């Protein structure tokens, strides 16, 4: 009897469905309020059966967490200038630029409004990036604040300004945030 090997299909139908559903969510949120989002509407827009969404995600909250996690993972490069201050300034400026994108804001607002895990999906990668910057400074022998404190001082105001105040964060302001953190 010949031996069979199991191989995972790269991409395949599952990846196509996920991409179509994510794209449908982003497009829907660009045209409609988040409160109007339902799994059947997204399924129709993505060209799949609603049971596919219920089976894979189970709820709008789970779908939004997946869309947010996907969108906010790896989209910002962690700078390495050799200076903690410079790294944080570049990173905070990149985050501010990302948060100024209307599509990003729509995804964030929908994810946050979908349930308690939505906010985590929008910030988990940012915390990992911040931790990498701070850990690298420590490995160089420097002193760096704890991630939680840095997130409070940097991400808190950036996200508040983007989500609730609707004000863009100019580079001078993000520099002030970093200066406040490193006092």
Automatic annotation (TrEMBL):
Transcription among keywords: yes
DNA-binding residue intervals: 38-57
Presence of keyword Transcription regulation: yes
Keywords, ordered alphabetically: DNA-binding, Transcription, Transcription regulation
Pfam families given in the database record: TetR_C_11 (PF16859), TetR_N (PF00440)
Record-level Gene Ontology MF annotations: DNA-binding transcription factor activity; transcription cis-regulatory region binding
Top-rank taxon: Bacteria
Gene3D superfamilies referenced in this protein's UniProt entry, alphabetically: Homeodomain-like, Tetracycline Repressor, domain 2
InterPro entries (UniProt xref): Homeodomain-like_sf, HTH-type_TetR-like_transc_reg, HTH_TetR, Tet_transcr_reg_TetR-rel_C_sf, TetR_C
Domain HTH tetR-type span(s) in chain numbering: 15-75
Listed name of the protein: TetR family transcriptional regulator
Native source organism of the sequence: Amycolatopsis thermoflava
Lineage, broadest ranks: Bacteria, Bacillati, Actinomycetota, Actinomycetes, Pseudonocardiales
């Amino acid at each position: 009897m010949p031996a069979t090997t199991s191989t995972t299909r790269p991409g395949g139908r599952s990846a196509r469905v996920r991409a179509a559903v994510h794209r449908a969510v982003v497009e829907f949120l660009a045209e409609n309020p988040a409160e109007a989002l339902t799994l059947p509407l997204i399924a129709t827009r993505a060209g799949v059966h609603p049971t596919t969404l219920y089976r894979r995600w189970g709820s709008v909250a789970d779908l939004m967490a997946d869309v947010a996690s996907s969108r906010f993972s790896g989209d910002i490069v962690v700078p390495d200038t050799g200076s903690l201050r410079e790294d944080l300034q570049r990173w905070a400026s990149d985050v501010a630029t990302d948060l100024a994108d209307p599509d990003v804001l729509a995804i964030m607002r929908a994810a946050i409004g979908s349930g308690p895990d939505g906010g985590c999906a929008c910030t988990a990668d940012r915390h990992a990036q911040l931790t990498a910057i701070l850990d690298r400074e420590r490995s160089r022998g420097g002193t760096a604040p704890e991630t939680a404190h840095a997130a409070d001082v940097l991400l808190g105001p950036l996200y508040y300004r983007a989500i609730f105040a609707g004000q863009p964060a100019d580079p001078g302001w993000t520099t002030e945030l970093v200066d406040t953190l490193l006092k």
